[in-house]
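We modelled the chain as a single entity of 480 amino acids. Its sequence is:
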Amino acid sequence: MTTTEAGFAPLYMHIAGERVGVGHRRVHSLINPATGAVLGELPLADAADLDRALDAAAKGFQVWRNTPAEARGAVLKKAAALLRERAESIARIATLEEGKTLAEARVEANVVANLFEFYGEECRRTYGRVLVRPTGHRSMVMKYPVGPVAAFAPWNFPLGNPGRKLGAPIAAGCSVILKPAEEAPASALAILQALLDAGLPDNVAQVVFGVPDEVSRHLLASPVIAKLSFTGSTVVGKHLAKLAADRCIRTTMELGGHAPVLIFDDANFDQTVELLAASKARNAGQVCVSPTRFYVQEGVYDRFVEAFAGRYGSTPVGDGLKADIRMGPMANPRRPTAIEALVKDAVGHGARVVTGGEAIEGPGWFWKPTVLADLPVTARAMNEEPFGPLVLMTPFKTFDEAIEHANRLPFGLAAYAFTQDAKKVMLLGDTIRSGMVGINTTMIAGPDSPFGGVGYSGHGSEDGPEGLEACLVTKAIHQG
């Protein structure tokens, strides 16, 4: 799918090999968050559409589960090559509809390509095992695809999230019904098109859009669906987990985070400032693993607050299509409103605004890179995921105090720490309660590495062998 000078190509759903357009259906207006302009009208599924998708997924599973791993892998690897060829046009789509910078979107397109390539090889390694038994007896442990997957992806990584939802199930031999975010439909359709052009049978992957609660209730109530994969907020995740529990559907839940950052006084100061400022600007902070709660050892606290605010506050903000921009808009009008409320609450609790703290006037949904210092634990922002360009700074004294701060919330998706002390490095990895920990780095994801959290941040993993395992069921076969 490509854009034209007149705007987006018509938006659609992919059901049973057919591009389903608006027709009689309800629509969602797709808005460019940098300009407020309408990019297109997106059709929303009705019950009949969802039933067609379920029927197609059931048929697709029967075909794909019996397709050899080598053939499944070939499709994924060819799709990876197509994504690399189309990275520039696909990245432009993602920037137009979600707002992130074009440079970030290019990286994201290639991340999906790398993931598909990894699963193109990993799908051949769904090994079981043979158990030791007396002569004349044999016991085997085998792995089989779990079945059709209902997958729900959010808008913040319009290419990466659909790629994750499609890659592992397709590698495992499952069919998928994917509901991407209505704020970023064309990006997801571009990922699907690469798979279809690589030879994926039409019925293996369906893409639908619609009113989220309608779609989730309809799909999860169907006996066709064997697994739920969801990325999004903890509140919605809990709701979907309850629906899945009614039918004992397997779940992988990647939910909200509120990543702590521990900065010790022996950290490489300049490197830490630069690394964290760039990481926080990524996608305007609309990242589930975005560094947010900064706990800085008191010996360098004042200096770090000043240096970081200077560097982060000077981040060029604007339309992500412009080459000199390093931070784009918020993805929808809900986000600036939410950030404004958190800033006002924090200031009311005694926090001080070091830089930013307000929206940027003009078209689009832009917010200044914001640093708040000296926040008490009672401020809402210290307890609720901001999901925006908001950094919270608080001092600490001792190692134990830092760990207490890091582990205070029920979230446990990502955490970061910066120190040059080898003993601290070891202890930090052991004591921080989080699914992913970055020590002296913010790079915590890769196609071969599990991505997921603990506690209110969900359960299960995407990516890596663990992501493939989540789409398989284990069967013990005993022969006498």
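As a brief sanity check on the tokenised model: Residues 260-447 form a domain with the Aldehyde Dehydrogenase; Chain A, domain 2 fold (CATH 3.40.309.10). The first strand starts at residue 3 and ends at 4.
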